[in-house]
């Protein structure tokens, strides 16, 4: 493996024949969630996929479990954060498509079919796709289905209630693919250098990756309403401080993540084709001015 990761061990598991996606799952002492996540992939995927788990620390038995399951995995004895975990796990990929999935997500039946169908309809590889999250709490995120509380821990998970409710949890395809589950061709991942490790442990690395794709010319940021996962949410982020990710994004790109989501990606609005350049409205001018002032504070 690459000498760029001397702090990380690489392990090959059992090969998956005809794998379509390489699913990268960072996990940090989250065994119960990780087990449910992997089980849901295996039970509910329409196609076979390669699963690659990065184990941070693994003090809860998760390292032993992924080895028992013969999964491809990477391991660090310390928490190296999401960005470095993903960049390391990428080294084990055997397919052309990288899908980033959080370990606190449960994949609903045939979640991968709309992703595969949509990417097959694209004229080139300049696209970024996301599944739609179902979340138990209202966060104000226009790209998710919420609040729909089917439990906030695997021990409390009301799986059958969720599955029976799926026909009623409908959403149109939307603009603004950014958060996981997200899917990109590995050539784009490599072209922008993967996830930026200056954001470690990972806060605001998702909009940064999307902005790098935008800067590369990608304009199809498609969220798929028929590709759904249940997101327990906040299982790892609640354990660590947010850090300086928002400030790093502002200094790097000259705007805040919220301005990027609202004016560039048009987060949550109905998808109707490639995104245009942002309209230079008074609202955007004022937002850019405020960002410029913030950059000096």
Please provide a written account of the structure:
The structure is a single chain. With 297 residues, this protein is of the alpha/beta class. Helices cover 32% and strands 19% of the residues. The chain is built from ten helices and ten strands. Strands 1, 2, 3, 4, 5, 6, 7, 8, 9 and 10 form a ten-stranded mixed β-sheet that branches. β3, α2 and β4 form a beta-alpha-beta unit. The protein is globular, with a radius of gyration of 19 Å. The N and C termini lie far apart (42 Å). The model has no long low-confidence stretch (mean pLDDT 95).
Write a concise keyword list for the protein shown above:
ten-stranded mixed beta sheet, alpha/beta, 297 residues
Assign the structural class, choosing from mainly alpha, mainly beta, alpha/beta, alpha+beta, or little secondary structure. Answer: alpha/beta
Q: What general form does the structure show? A: globular
Number of helices: 10
Oligomer: single chain
Overall helicity? 25-40%
Distance between the termini: 42 Å
Q: Describe the sheet with the most strands.
A: 10 strands, mixed
Poorly predicted runs are none
Order of helices and strands: EEHEHEHEEHEHEEHHEHHH
Q: Measured on Cα atoms, how large is the radius of gyration? A: 19 Å
Q: What share of the residues does DSSP label as strand, in percent? A: 15-25%
**Count of DSSP strands:** 10
Chain-averaged pLDDT: 95
């Amino acid at each position: 493996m690459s000498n760029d990761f001397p702090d990380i061990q690489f392990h090959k598991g059992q090969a998956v024949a005809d794998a379509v996606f390489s699913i990268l799952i960072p996990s940090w002492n989250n065994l119960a969630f990780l087990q449910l996540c992997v089980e849901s992939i295996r039970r509910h995927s329409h196609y076979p996929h390669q699963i690659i788990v990065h184990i941070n620390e693994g003090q809860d038995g998760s390292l032993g479990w992924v080895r028992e399951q013969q999964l491809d995995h990477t391991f660090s004895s310390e928490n190296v954060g999401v960005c470095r975990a993903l960049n390391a796990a990428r080294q084990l990929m055997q397919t052309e498509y990288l899908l980033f999935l959080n370990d606190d997500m449960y994949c609903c039946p045939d979640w991968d079919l709309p992703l595969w169908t949509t990417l097959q309809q694209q004229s080139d590889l300049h696209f970024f796709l996301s599944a739609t999250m179902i979340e138990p709490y209202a966060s104000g995120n226009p790209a998710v289905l919420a609040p729909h509380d089917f439990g906030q821990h695997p021990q409390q998970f009301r799986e059958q209630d969720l599955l029976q409710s799926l026909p009623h949890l409908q959403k149109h395809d939307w603009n603004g693919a950014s958060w996981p589950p997200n899917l990109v061709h590995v050539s784009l991942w490599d072209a922008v250098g993967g996830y930026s490790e200056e954001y470690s442990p990972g806060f605001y690395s998702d909009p940064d990756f999307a902005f790098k794709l935008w800067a590369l010319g990608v304009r199809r940021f498609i969220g798929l309403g028929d590709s759904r996962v249940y997101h327990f949410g906040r299982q790892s982020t609640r354990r660590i401080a947010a850090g300086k990710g928002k400030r790093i994004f502002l200094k790097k790109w000259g705007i805040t993540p919220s301005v990027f989501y609202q004016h560039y990606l048009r987060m949550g609005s109905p998808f109707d084709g490639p995104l245009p350049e942002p309209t230079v409205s008074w609202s955007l001018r004022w937002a850019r001015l405020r960002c410029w002032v913030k950059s000096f504070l």
